[in-house]
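Quick review question:
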C-alpha cells in the first residue's frame, strides 16, 4: 500500500516534519514503512511539449515519426507509443536530460530516422506505473514549461501490507492521517462530505441474509457526465498506484483509497426493476464481470441482483452489463458492508482479487458506508457541478445496528504490563488522540471504542494496553532485567537421545530422515501381519483406509520404500516416532507408547553388492557407540516379526537388555510389495537406550606416546562369539590394549570342519611411555594363552 503525503496533508498539517521522521515514527508505532519514494519534483531537461505531426515510420510498422514543439524549437522524434496523437501536450525529455532511472537522452538514429529527444510515459518519469503508452497532459498545460514545475512534488511511503492486516482503519489514507495526528500532536480535520437525507427512494433494497450483509446504502445521482478526470485527481491516484479510467470510476477509487470503503456505480438505465437484492448465488448461475470473463457461480458466492438476475459479485467485482460508460447520465451508487469471510471465500473460489476484496475481507466499519456516499457527492459536485443527488439515501440494515463497545482499563494493569507508571490523564490523552472516548473512574478508565476500531480489533483490556504502549513509545520504556526466577525445564533423556540419533544417522550415517502420519494404511497393516493386533481406532480418519493408529513405524516406512525406489537405486532412510499399544497401560492411564528409530537400507538387486544386513549392523554399532554402550547380536533372540527374515536377523542386546533388532526384509513381503530390491532394516527402542547410555562420558587428552599394532589369527569353533573374543583380548593385556578389531573371517581349506579363522588387529598403547618390543611380545603370549583357555582358540600360522 502507498501513502501520498500531499494527500494526507488534506487532513493533517505535516509541514516542517522531515519525511524520514514520519517513516521512523510510523514504523515504531503503527505499521512498517518499507521505503520512501519522491514523485515528481525537479526533473532537469524535461519540459512540456506539443505533438505537431504524427506519421508512419518507413522502416518499422510499430514506430511513428513525430515532430515535437517546446515553444522555442521543434524536434524530430521517433516514438513507439500506440497512443501518440497530433495536438497532444506531453512530457518531453530533451537531449542531455537524465531520467529518474538513470537513462541519459542522446541524439540517435532509429531504423534510419533521426530522433532528438523522447516522449515519456509515467514509468519513465517515475510518477506512476503505466508504461504502456505516453503520458498525455491536460490541454491547458503550457508548452515549454518545466515538467517538474507543472507536475509538482510528492513524497510517497510504501507500507508493508502484512503489518496492517489486523487494522481495517489503516486501509485508507484517512486512517494514517489519524495516526499521524496523534503521533505529532497535530489537529485532524473531520472527514469531508455534506449531510444527506436518509429515507425512501425509487429503489428498494432487499437483504436476504443480514449476517452476510450488515448494511447496504444506495444513492441515485443525476446529471452524470463520464469524462476524463482532472489532473489533480489523476495525480493523486497515480501516486498510490491506481490508474485513471474516467471521472466516475476515479472518484469511486479515490474514496476507497482515502477512506478504505469501496463503492460501486451502476448505470441506472441498465438496471431492471425497482429492487436491488443481496443474496447468495444459486448453483448454475453465471455473470460476466467487468474484466470480460464469464464466471460460473457457486452457492458460496454472494451476489447483487436486479429483476434480471445477478449484476455484481458482492464485495469483489461489478458486472459488465451494468457498467458505467460514456452514455451514462444517471447512476446508482452502492456503498455496503459485506461479511469478510463470505467475501474472502468468494474471491478464492473464483480466483479473483481486487482492491475491494482486500478491504472487505478485513471487516469494515458500517458507519463508513454513509461517509463514502457523502464524500463521493462532495468530489463529484466539485468536478462537475451538474451532478446532484436524486431524493434521499436508501439505507438498509441486515440486522441489529452495532452497539458501542466499552472496555474497562485498569491503571495497575497498564503499569504491570508496560513496566512504567502512567497517570490517568496520560492514558486518557493518548487514547483520545486516536478518537477513543475515555471516562476516568478512580484507578480505572471506562473506554468507549470508536466504530472504526470496534470491528474485532479492540475488544479487551490488553488491546487498550497495546494502544497505550505504542503511542507512549516502546522506545520510551526503559529496559529492565526480568526479576522473576527462571527455572530451566526438566531435560527429557529420551529427547536427548532422539536428537543424537537424528544427528548421527543424517550426518555421518548417510541416511535421509522421513516423516509420516501416526496412522497407517489398513492394507499395509494387514500386509505386515498386524491386522489381528489391537489398535487405537480413529473417530475422524482423514481417509477411509486410514482408521488405525500405528503400532510400529515399519508399515509406514515401507510406503516410503516403494516411493523412493521409483527414483533411486540405492538409498538409506530413517524415521523417529511413536507406536501406540492400547492393550498396555502407559503414563496417566493412557495407552502405552513406544519410542523407536527405524532405519532401512535399500538397493536394487545386483548380486555383487555387500550385504545390507551388515551395513545396518554397522549403523547400529555406530549409534550404540555414540551412546557409550556396547551391544551384541543374538540370532536366537531374533524377534518373531512378519517383516523380518526368519534366519537373517538378530536381536540387539546390551548386557541383558534387548534394545532392538536388525535384519533383512522378509522375501514374502518384498514380493507382495513388488519392490524388486534388497532391503534390510533395524529398529532401536529409544527409551531403553536413554536408560542405558553413559551419561557421564568424559573426554580424555590425546595420547602423548605412539601406539603399536599387532595382527593375530586364531582358529576357533564357529560357536564362539567375536565380541566375546574381543573382550578377552582386551582383558588379557589390560590396560595396554586400546582396541581390538576383527578384520578378516576365513572358512575353507586348512581349517577344520566346524571351525573358522578370525583375524584381529590389536592396538597397544601406554599413557606414560612407548611400549618396547619385549613388552608387546609378552602381551601377545598372554592373549594367546587366554584365548586358548577361554575359547579353545589355536594360533594360526
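Suggested answer, residue by residue:
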Amino acid at each position: 500500500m502507498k501513502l501520498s503525503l500531499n494527500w494526507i496533508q488534506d487532513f493533517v498539517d505535516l509541514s516542517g516534519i522531515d519525511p524520514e521522521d514520519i517513516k521512523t515514527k510510523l514504523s515504531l508505532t503503527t505499521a512498517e514503512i518499507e521505503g520512501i519514494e519522491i514523485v515528481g519534483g525537479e526533473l532537469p531537461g524535461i519540459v512540456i511539449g506539443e505533438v505537431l505531426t504524427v506519421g508512419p515510420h518507413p522502416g518499422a510498422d510499430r514506430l511513428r515519426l513525430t515532430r515535437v514543439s517546446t515553444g522555442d524549437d521543434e524536434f524530430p522524434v521517433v516514438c513507439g507509443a500506440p497512443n501518440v496523437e497530433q495536438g497532444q501536450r506531453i512530457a518531453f525529455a530533451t537531449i542531455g536530460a537524465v531520467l529518474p532511472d538513470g537513462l541519459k537522452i542522446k541524439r540517435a538514429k532509429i531504423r534510419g530516422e533521426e530522433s532528438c529527444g523522447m516522449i515519456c510515459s509515467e514509468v519513465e518519469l517515475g510518477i506512476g506505473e503505466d508504461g504502456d503508452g505516453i503520458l498525455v497532459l491536460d490541454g491547458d498545460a503550457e508548452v515549454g514549461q518545466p515538467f517538474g514545475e507543472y507536475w509538482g512534488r510528492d513524497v510517497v511511503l510504501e507500507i508493508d501490507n502484512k503489518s496492517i492486516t489486523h487494522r481495517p482503519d489503516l486501509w485508507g489514507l484517512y486512517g494514517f492521517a489519524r495516526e499521524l495526528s496523534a503521533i505529532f500532536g497535530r489537529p485532524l480535520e473531520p472527514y469531508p462530505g455534506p449531510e444527506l437525507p436518509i429515507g425512501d427512494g425509487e429503489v428498494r433494497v432487499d437483504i436476504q441474509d443480514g449476517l452476510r450483509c450488515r448494511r447496504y446504502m444506495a444513492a441515485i445521482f443525476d446529471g452524470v457526465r463520464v469524462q476524463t478526470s482532472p489532473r489533480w485527481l489523476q495525480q493523486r491516484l497515480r501516486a498510490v498506484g491506481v490508474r485513471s479510467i474516467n471521472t466516475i470510476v476515479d472518484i469511486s477509487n479515490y474514496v476507497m483509497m482515502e477512506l478504505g470503503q469501496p463503492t460501486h456505480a451502476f448505470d441506472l438505465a441498465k438496471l431492471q426493476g425497482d429492487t436491488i437484492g443481496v443474496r447468495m448465488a444459486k448453483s448454475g448461475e453465471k455473470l460476466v464481470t467487468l474484466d470480460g470473463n464469464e464466471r460460473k457461480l457457486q452457492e458460496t458466492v454472494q451476489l447483487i441482483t436486479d429483476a434480471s438476475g445477478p449484476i455484481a459479485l458482492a464485495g469483489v467485482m461489478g458486472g459488465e452489463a451494468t457498467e458505467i460508460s460514456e452514455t451514462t447520465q444517471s447512476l446508482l451508487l452502492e456503498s455496503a458492508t459485506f461479511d469478510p469471510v463470505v467475501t474472502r471465500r468468494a474471491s478464492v473460489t473464483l480466483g479473483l482479487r481486487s482492491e475491494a476484496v482486500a478491504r472487505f475481507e478485513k471487516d469494515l466499519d458500517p458507519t463508513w458506508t454513509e461517509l463514502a456516499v457523502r464524500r463521493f457527492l462532495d468530489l463529484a459536485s466539485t468536478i462537475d457541478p451538474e451532478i446532484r443527488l436524486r431524493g434521499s439515501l436508501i439505507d438498509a440494515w441486515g440486522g441489529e445496528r452495532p452497539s458501542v463497545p466499552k472496555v474497562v482499563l485498569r491503571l495497575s494493569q497498564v503499569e504491570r504490563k508496560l513496566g512504567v507508571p502512567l497517570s490517568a490523564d496520560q492514558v486518557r490523552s493518548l487514547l483520545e488522540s486516536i478518537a477513543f472516548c475515555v471516562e476516568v473512574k478512580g484507578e480505572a478508565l471506562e473506554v468507549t471504542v470508536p466504530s472504526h476500531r470496534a470491528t474485532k480489533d479492540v475488544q479487551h483490556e490488553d488491546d487498550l494496553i497495546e494502544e497505550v504502549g505504542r503511542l507512549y513509545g516502546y522506545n520510551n520504556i526503559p529496559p529492565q532485567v526480568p526479576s522473576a526466577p527462571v527455572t530451566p525445564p526438566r531435560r527429557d533423556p529420551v529427547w536427548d537421545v532422539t536428537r543424537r540419533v537424528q544427528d548421527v544417522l543424517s550426518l555421518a550415517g548417510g541416511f535421509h530422515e522421513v516423516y509420516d502420519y501416526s496412522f497407517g494404511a489398513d492394507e499395509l497393516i494387514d500386509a505386515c501381519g498386524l491386522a489381528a493386533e489391537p489398535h487405537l481406532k480413529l473417530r475422524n480418519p482423514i481417509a477411509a483406509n486410514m482408521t488405525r493408529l500405528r503400532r510400529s513405524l515399519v508399515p509406514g516406512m515401507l510406503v516410503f520404500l516403494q516411493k523412493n525406489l521409483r527414483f533411486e537405486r540405492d538409498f538409506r532412510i530413517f524415521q523417529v516416532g511413536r507406536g501406540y499399544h492400547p492393550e498396555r497401560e502407559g503414563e496417566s492411564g493412557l495407552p502405552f507408547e513406544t519410542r523407536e528409530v527405524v532405519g532401512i537400507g535399500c538397493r536394487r538387486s545386483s548380486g555383487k553388492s555387500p550385504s545390507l544386513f551388515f551395513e545396518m549392523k554397522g549403523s547400529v554399532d555406530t549409534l550404540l557407540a555414540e551412546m557409550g554402550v556396547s551391544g551384541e547380536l543374538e540370532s536366537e533372540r531374533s524377534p518373531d516379526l512378519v517383516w523380518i527374515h526368519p534366519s537373517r536377523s538378530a536381536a540387539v542386546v546390551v548386557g541383558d537388555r534387548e534394545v532392538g533388532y536388525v535384519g533383512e526384509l522378509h522375501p514374502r513381503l518384498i514380493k507382495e510389495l513388488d519392490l524388486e530390491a534388497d532391503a534390510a532394516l533395524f529398529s532401536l527402542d529409544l527409551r531403553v537406550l536413554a536408560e542405558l547410555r553413559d551419561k557421564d562420558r568424559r573426554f580424555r587428552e590425546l595420547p602423548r606416546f605412539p601406539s603399536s599394532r599387532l595382527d593375530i589369527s586364531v582358529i576357533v569353533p564357529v560357536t564362539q562369539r567375536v565380541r566375546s573374543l574381543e573382550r578377552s583380548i582386551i582383558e588379557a593385556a589390560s590396560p595396554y590394549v586400546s582396541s581390538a578389531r576383527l578384520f578378516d573371517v576365513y572358512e575353507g581349506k586348512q581349517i577344520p570342519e566346524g571351525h573358522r579363522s578370525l583375524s584381529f588387529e590389536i592396538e597397544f598403547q601406554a599413557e606414560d611411555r612407548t611400549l618396547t618390543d619385549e613388552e608387546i611380545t609378552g602381551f601377545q603370549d598372554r592373549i594367546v594363552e587366554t584365548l586358548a583357555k577361554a575359547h579353545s582358540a589355536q594360533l594360526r600360522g
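Why it works: The chain has a mean pLDDT of 91. The two ends are 87 Å apart (CA to CA).
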